[in-house]
Design brief:
249 residues, alpha+beta, Arc Repressor Mutant, subunit A, 2 domains
Length: 249
């Protein structure tokens, strides 16, 4: 697999100021209607009435981040959270040795940055957009008002956070117990489920990345990922075409 795709090597403090700039849309009537149509299908909002949805939109700011924009950085003060309504983001941390470790890739219906608001602590990780990403941004007071006024949203948020915790636990168990090829295949299956494009013999993972970036997602080295890709190709689990990984049926 060649070195192609997004260069996920943004480090806190090393990102140009311009990359932190995003569009801040004031929501008019048309924008509100469009956002409601995007929000209704998402699991986080399925239990909300139209009135509860409008309460949320009245409290939130519509943000638009371009590709590879840093949304927030590890260790900075946590003042807002974001609900993703369109696009994808990558969560990553920088270890004491300076190396980057990708934690998760999140998409529509996920909330990011809420831990810092609940705990009044600095950000525990950095978040960067992978596509043009639209979010609803809420500060701490706005989030608390929404949760008090919309019990259904509070319940949905608890369910989402519980699911994320369960996923994190399962990921940790997999990293500890599975060989690299199995860990890589499991991660590729997750990526295919979230960003796969159907081709004649499988799903093409429509998320460009390098072998090093794959390595940070499963906690191993680039060399180990290279060997694991070769083994998965030999087993008929994947093929690589034009630099894209295709998970075979």
């Amino acid at each position: 697999m060649g070195t192609i795709g997004l260069q996920w090597n943004l480090l806190p403090g090393a990102v140009p100021t311009s990359t932190r700039t995003c569009r801040d849309n004031t929501m008019g009537t048309t924008d509100t209607v469009e956002l409601l149509s995007l929000l209704h299908p998402l699991p986080l909002f399925r239990g909300l009435s139209a009135q509860e949805m409008r309460i949320l939109l009245a409290e939130a700011r519509h943000r638009i981040f371009q590709v590879e924009q840093l949304i927030f950085a590890q260790d900075e003060a946590g003042e807002t959270c974001h609900i993703i309504i369109q696009g994808r983001v990558r969560i990553f941390v920088i270890g004491e040795d300076g190396r980057e470790l990708s934690m998760r890739i999140l998409g529509p219906g996920e909330i990011i940055g809420e831990m810092a608001l609940f705990e009044n602590l600095p950000r525990s990780a950095s978040v960067v957009s992978l596509d043009e990403t639209h979010t609803l941004e809420l500060d701490q007071e706005a989030l608390m008002r929404c949760l008090r006024r919309c019990p259904a949203l509070a319940l949905s948020l608890l369910q989402a956070l519980s699911a994320r915790l369960r996923h994190t636990t399962e990921e940790a168990e997999g990293l500890a117990s599975q060989p690299v090829p199995e860990r890589l295949l499991r991660r590729l299956q997750q990526l295919a489920n979230s960003s796969g494009v159907r081709v004649h013999d499988g799903l093409r993972i429509a998320l460009p990345m390098t072998q090093q970036e794959l390595a940070t997602l499963i906690g191993t080295s680039r060399e180990s990922v290279n060997r694991a890709l070769v083994r998965l190709k030999q087993q008929g689990a994947i093929r690589v075409e034009g630099g894209w990984i295709i998970l075979l049926d």
